[in-house]
């Protein structure tokens, strides 16, 4: 991703601290979310191209830098780390161990849960050069302590670190620095491993650094790289880089058990069980102990299975044929180090064991594991220039380097040999196998190993995912804190009451502490994940696979969905509509030719160009032949199929007899043979090598039956150039021809102006307006070009001064499900954005066809009046695509007055003049991000519906910019060019045939966007289920807390088996099956809230608590007024279970647990009705009948078992009537009363915010100045409109949990007032 200017970053931080005012209560989401950010919103940060220490903190005001602290940015993971060096204090460590022993392990637990306190007590900060351990803290506050290891190295510092890292950042005297600087030798290698990343201490820079981007200075040419390594060099690098294996370390069962058991919730469970045993609740405590033990063991087994599965998936070793000290031998792949040269054509090699670059030969690989793209990718040998441009510090390999790059873990579909770049005289004569007669090989050189590879980085991202700061998870822990406060209050009240009653101190403490175990249920965290588990299972049945469960709930909050176009909204395989060539007589385009036969019978004035265009279609592509089947880019395949020609390829050229022979080495290029691919029309004879090399072309036959074209060299498609080209040798023709195809806009600049038809723009506009995809082709003849020169000629020389041939027009067919899905999302008021690399007019046409934008809505596209995307002073004009007389103001992006509106393809209406969208091109997007004012950028992001000609990096950046203004963004693409955007999005959905791809959190095996609706539906259902389960567990705790509090009034309590019946018979099955309700099939325009601390949720929760408490209080008072009532007799030191209050409250409470589950079983619009959840209905009905039988006609043994007293049958009926009334009131309140109360509160708060917003705007207008960017605010804008969008807030933001307003809502409100 391109770096954002620092000014842009500060603006986003600034917006992040503002409040959103004036929110409409009927917006498309819960009104309580108006101040909520995108749940996983990142703050945009500049990424350095090198991973090195940055900006150490000031230790004192005099400018002395703190040598114990180091900041580093990991570009692969895009996270900030802080390293702090420590030396351990032996005396304090001894004191700590003694305190752990004397406290019975309590100090140990506190030190484990509060690592900051622990490390500050047992260790002292020191410089990195003297540190014994490093405390690593990430931006979310998670910290680990890593011990520093030391090995003797004795090699040069330059063999470990790149030249850019050899910069001293601290100007002070240091013995280690002086020694390293003077001798350039690193005697001892000090390092530590953090999350499988090795950080090595650089004695020159006096800091810990990665060496994953290290590049050997000797890699200056392909010939030097092919020599391989000497044995001593290999041993040296093996010490630095370690083994080439991605080996995920499995924790032992003991380590996992300790990690699980020492979690605060399990410690709380242990504390609770100890308390219950002490209070003689033996049966209940034993049952919970058994359940907890089974839970821990099952979770341990599942964790072990997951770790073993991850290890098996990531670990790969094989035998590799490597050139060491000039000799070829087999070694284990784990012994590979950067600089090793290995043979890719070896029959035993099927998967690349490391990241490497291709030196000779060519190969086709399947990269679906990394990208999700199922189409095999062709790789070509590295050039000297590409070798110089190779930058291993980049997290994403650029596309122009990726075509030479072999990624670890990708499968070899086919590999062919090539000729070595080393001259014969340079070969070693003592080679044990071949000596001077080296066979042809396909060679690759190792550049990255182990976890430093691209596969290793992806495995790390799965092992250590970024914590998602989702609002629901934050609020849930806050609410647990509130419950704990309630428990503490109950503890104090009950303690005072027990003291008044003279309860023994031991019993008093036990009973008071028991209240805490009731109010904070230990099973609460597990219960909240039930809905997510069911959702993932349902998605899997729909062939949608999820590798990040936390993203499921986030899917329920999506309010902006971005789509790639080709292969996502439209079909992968575009059909060729036809071709259109220029007519030399009329200087305009001729008729559309829909068949090859039509091209051959074209008029004489078009014949030459038609023939050349046919040759271009047959040769200018990336199609390969594998086992008789053609593979490659779908567009290229359709284009080649249109010609009906035959393609053959091989590293060996074919002779006239049909056999194969090696091309003479003096004429071969880097690809291995003179001709890597040949094409010929149906029925033509094969290419004859002797004829091609013959110096007597006049002797050749001119018959078309010998027509064959050999592709000598291919310049692959580059997204920045938007074109590709080939150098072709035609049989019977001296010299060679060049064929180029690319985007029509790009071809204009490299074609001779006189060869362009006069109606070039009109024809292009017509096709793109009607949704066709257009490719332009050009050619030029190079009669003097030889084979040797063809391999050395530069791309710029080839792709210049071309003769324009014509257009190839492709039909861009929509997928059948595209329009219905787009309509569904639109009805759900989810914003939809198209993000494509295609032409902007084609994208607009497809958008109109599928309904992404309305056909009557004005669409404005930008162009540069002067300048370009990298010039700050460039000027942009926004023109209506149907009438270029209609324009937008370049700053405010509002329609200018006096626009004509004449000559439009679609009608427009004056009263809808504010309803327009923007179609932004990639170059303008780049300029807007880098140089435009923040207010203009935000308006563009809000109004932009189509983003065309976007590179993969720009797609990634678009997602991050949308998140930065408050959207919760989803992205759906094919996984090939969209990896960055898929990972950056809050939910990324890859359309891939692979079962699961690390390219995105979600992978759909169905090749249409139906999966988007399914993911959002399940996300909403899971989110609502999590809320329901949380509210249910909270109410269960409060109901039981209320019951026990009433009984504590006279030192009574619930009985052992009463607790068992409630927790095991009632709560457990209800909590499990309550979350099984499926997602509602329709998407509602209103999104579910993600905030527990919101008006709607709190009103419901507090209201239900009051209702349940009032019913229990009423029954408690009523039973004491009965004539048969007998006050309980308090016996000092006894439990005093059996009493009328206990029996009555138990009877009512067992119904309350069930009715609360019914009330909180939310149905439409996010889940199906409760009755659709049959297991839940059967269990609830069964438990209601069981509880009713316990109340009305309990068997004598059961009454004794539950310690119940006999009460009159009429009062039992009264309790049932109370339970029914309780259910009715709770249901009515939940559906009618509480929403009305929440709405009233919302209206009051909204009115209050509007008033405070007006005061803030007035204060902003009185500010003497506020930050702007280069362009002054248009004087026509009202200050009240422009001020909120300017960057007036703080310079810094907080990445770990800061909440910013939804800026896009401010922009929408502002633009609606224009």
TrEMBL record:
Biased composition (Polar residues): 39-48
The EC number(s) this enzyme carries: 7.2.2.-
Region (Disordered): 1-59, 1286-1314
Start-end of Basic and acidic residues biased regions: 1303-1314
All residue ranges annotated as the Cation-transporting P-type ATPase N-terminal domain in the record: 226-276
GO MF entries: ATP binding; ATP hydrolysis activity; ATPase-coupled monoatomic cation transmembrane transporter activity; metal ion binding; P-type ion transporter activity
Presence of the UniProt keyword ATP-binding in the record: yes
Transmembrane segments: 95-114, 281-301, 476-495, 1033-1051, 1057-1076, 1097-1119, 1145-1164, 1176-1197, 1209-1228
Recorded catalytic activity of this chain's protein: ATP + H2O = ADP + phosphate + H(+)
Pfam family, one: P5-ATPase
The keyword Zinc appears for this protein: no
InterPro entries xrefs: ATPase_P-typ_cation-transptr_N (IPR004014), ATPase_P-typ_cyto_dom_N (IPR023299), ATPase_P-typ_P_site (IPR018303), ATPase_P-typ_TM_dom_sf (IPR023298), ATPase_P-typ_transduc_dom_A_sf (IPR008250), ATPase_P-type_domA (IPR059000), HAD-like_sf (IPR036412), HAD_sf (IPR023214)
Domain P-type ATPase A: 319-461
Gene3D superfamilies according to UniProt: Calcium-transporting ATPase, cytoplasmic domain N, Calcium-transporting ATPase, cytoplasmic transduction domain A, Calcium-transporting ATPase, transmembrane domain, HAD superfamily/HAD-like
Domain P5B-type ATPase N-terminal, residue spans: 77-202
Subcellular location: Membrane
Keywords assigned by UniProt, alphabetized: ATP-binding, Magnesium, Membrane, Metal-binding, Nucleotide-binding, Phosphoprotein, Translocase, Transmembrane, Transmembrane helix
Recorded topology in the membrane: Multi-pass membrane protein
GO cellular component terms, A-Z: membrane
Annotated Acidic residues bias: 22-38
Gene Ontology biological process terms from the UniProt entry: intracellular calcium ion homeostasis
Family membership noted in the UniProt record: Belongs to the cation transport ATPase (P-type) (TC 3.A.3) family. Type V subfamily.
Family annotation (PANTHER family): CATION-TRANSPORTING ATPASE, CATION-TRANSPORTING ATPASE-RELATED
Matching NCBIfam families: ATPase_P-type, P-ATPase-V
Listed name of the protein: Cation-transporting ATPase
